[in-house]
Amino acid sequence: MANMSLRRLAATLGSNSVSGMAQAESLNIRPISARALCSLIFAEYSTQHYDNGRTGWNPNEFKLTVANVPQLTQLFAKSVDGTIYAQPLYVAFLLMPSDNKRHNAVYVATESDTVYAFDADNGDSLWTRSLIPPGEQFVVVSDIEGCNNVAPNIGITSTPVIDSLNQIMYVVAKTKQVVGSNTTFHYRLYALDITSGADRLAPVEIAGSVPGTGDPNDGKGHVVFDPHIHLNRPGLLLLNGVVYVGFGSHCDEHLGSYHGWVFGYDAAGLTQVGVFATTPDTPAAATSAAGVWQGGMGLAADPQGFIYFTTGNGDFTANAPGGKDYGDTVVKLTSFFGVTDYFTPSYQPTLLDGDIDLGSGGVLIVPDPPPGNNLPSTLVAAGKDGNILLINRNNMGQYTPGGPDRLLQSPPLQMAPGSRITDATGIWGGPAYYANSGRQLLYYCGSGGHMKAYTFSGTALSLSMIGPNPNQSPQAFPSEGGTTPNISSNGQAAGTAVLWAITRSNPLRLQAFDATDLTKQLFDAAAGPWNNSSGGAFIEPTTIQGKVYVPSDGQLTVFGLPP
Q1: Between helices 34-41 and 2-13, what is the axis angle to 10°?
Q2: How many CB atoms lie within 10 A of CB 255?
Q3: Alpha-carbon distance 142 to 444, whole Å?
Q4: Could you tell me which of 33, 251, 367, 409 has the fewest CB atoms within 10 Å of its CB?
Q5: Which domains does the chain have, with CATH numbers?
Q6: How many CB atoms lie within 10 A of CB 18?
Q7: How confident is the model at residue 46 (pLDDT cuts 50, 70, 90)?
């Protein structure tokens, strides 16, 4: 991420020092401090939860600290044409052709299929782009049997991803076309110029099939993707020149006909390079089919280029000869769309029977340990049951009927100690990660629970403590599915790590805590309307360059330090 920003800055100013200085003078760039230069170079938030490992940690926040966050005030709010479920994205120092000036830009996408670019510092509109083709319209709740996880409109749900080096945003939009009594549904992948909103490439319709006996079937042995019944909820992943797009379902409508899907498209031309379905052999009579939804968390990738995601309730047959179904599983996928490893809890049948999706939560790739210390490369994942799974990425454990599960830590740590699997004390979203002075912390907030910090030793997790008390927020987050936190800090500098989270109420509330001591709440303020009490567990703020951008129902609210 940082290297990409540096290359973009170098390309902007010119590789030759003399020409670079001349361009700098022409742009009225004055000498700046090393700290300000670092702030400019690293000023990107180009993917959901900050990076492809989905750590949620922005270590390049040079302005906000534990000491000054209590001084935050609302700077401005911008109205938009629909609810914002996607996380706002940010790129600094962009030359906009509309006025031939450089701007820091924040981007939001709405369920009415509109993408907005605002000046991140004053709220001026830079450009607006509707992704509804002529003769089409956005989808509404009645089109998908009244499922109100996303309501009242369904358009752009997943967080887009930005290639800042090439100044392209990739975004997926859902639409419908009504001709007489016939309605067809469409998903398209767009590649937009982030300086103008114009198409950099012709959009492509997302479609495909895989070999299988499941439904819907083309009658020739292929399960076919149906855009009507599927929802693109996970944030998009850009990895090694490929855009990966994941799909689950609208609630559990069309049981037996929906599946989890992952599509891959070449970022340079939007040609399809691969398709994967989680349950291609699920019979039509099955109760559900392993959607890839993750509470909005993006598909994750590790430094070695493998892709990870969780699946929801569905058939599991992967442990049987020829089995290809991966219900309630953490899947490790190669860039060639083959499963190279996986983990499925021994209690998977209980999850399926009780609608307790493992796939309600996304994967976080824990940064690799230093070479030579013999510690494993790990990931963490958790779903509705509240069990925090600590998994060796190089030996994930697969499936052991009846247990014990082959985890790094077994039995797994519980978000609500003593709870039953069926209590559904887990998350609809994901965790965050922070490291300081050799200590690694992970943060989870389960359904109706407190935000908690966990210490990661390299091979195990334990509840972090502040003296004799748990390191957790003073109050619980009341909403179903908890909330998804993220972290901002100035590297590992003391007194700069802040945890941010949204309380779902109407209005929403932006909350901030000292990330090293969650008992210290730093900020709490109303942050925009939220009318759909049944949805939004995975919305999260974006903190960068001294400001916090909060998505809500028809509004982007921006907080910062007083002038």
Answers
A1: 100
A2: 18
A3: 34
A4: 33
A5: 32-560 (2.140.10.10)
A6: 8
A7: very high
